[in-house]
Design goal:
The structure is a single chain. The protein starts with 10 loop residues before the first strand and ends with a helix. The chain is 32% helix and 22% strand. The protein is globular, with a radius of gyration of 17 Å. It has a single domain (7-206), classed as Spore Coat Polysaccharide Biosynthesis Protein SpsA, Chain A (Alpha-Beta Complex). The chain is an alpha/beta fold. It has a four-stranded mixed β-sheet. It has a two-stranded antiparallel ribbon with strand order 1-2. Pathway: Isoprenoid biosynthesis; isopentenyl diphosphate biosynthesis via DXP pathway; isopentenyl diphosphate from 1-deoxy-D-xylulose 5-phosphate: step 2/6. The record marks 7 as: Transition state stabilizer. Keywords: Isoprene biosynthesis, Nucleotidyltransferase, Transferase. GO terms for molecular function: 2-C-methyl-D-erythritol 4-phosphate cytidylyltransferase activity.
Length: 207
């Protein structure tokens, strides 16, 4: 992003990106039992100030993350030890525009199938890389993965008891050796704020 602070703390329509994201899951109609926010240790004090200033009404548990996404999700799961069953969603803190319908549909699909992930079809042509150049891929057979990614709680716990591998890029890749992953229609507005252009587009979409 090239900003002076972590991208989840950048201002979006007068509030930090992370506050917008958390409010999506705090929507009463979803009935989420607990929200766990996982952050690096050096960001905890900053979040405390932002929480008090912008969203003191948000009830959540804060956990210290690890060196990788895998380790951070595992730390978040540790906060749910009092729950024996249910569906848990893992979501990027920098996806502040996720429609409530996408969140709800992914939860419902996970409750039915055990594991569900929001995804959209690529709009552009896609090519793979080879030793001699590149080759065309059939984009009708490809999907761009988003979050939330939802799982039966015990299934996700079992997956995160396995050793961490470099091939784990998201939670679906951690779980897929144990259980099939159901895809749920995502939304092209469900941006992951990564570059300055993403922030500008999010401003427009929220407006």
């Amino acid at each position: 992003m090239g900003a002076d602070r972590p991208k989840q703390f950048l201002e979006l329509r007068g509030e930090p990106v992370l506050v917008h994201t958390l409010r999506r899951f705090a929507e009463p109609s979803l009935g989420v039992a607990r929200i766990v926010l996982v952050l690096p240790a050096e960001q905890l004090s900053v979040w405390q100030e932002l929480h008090a200033r912008y969203a003191p009404e948000l009830a959540l548990t804060v956990a210290t993350g690890g060196a990788t996404r895998w380790a951070s999700v595992r730390q978040g799961l540790a906060q749910l030890k009092d729950y024996g069953a249910g569906v848990v969603a893992v979501h990027d803190g920098v996806r502040p525009l996720t429609p409530t319908s996408v969140i709800e549909n992914t939860y419902v699909a996970a409750a039915r199938h055990g594991a569900a992930v929001a995804a959209v079809a690529p709009k552009d042509s896609v090519r793979g890389l080879s030793a001699t150049g590149s080759y065309a891929l059939d984009r009708s057979r490809l999907r761009l993965v988003q979050t939330p990614q939802c799982f039966e709680l015990e299934l996700l716990r079992r997956a995160y008891q396995l050793p961490e591998l470099p091939t784990f890029t998201d939670d679906a890749s951690v779980v897929e050796d144990l259980h099939p992953i159901q895809l749920v229609p995502g939304d092209y507005r469900n941006l992951k704020i990564t570059t300055p252009e993403d922030l500008l587009l999010a401003e427009v979409l929220l407006g």
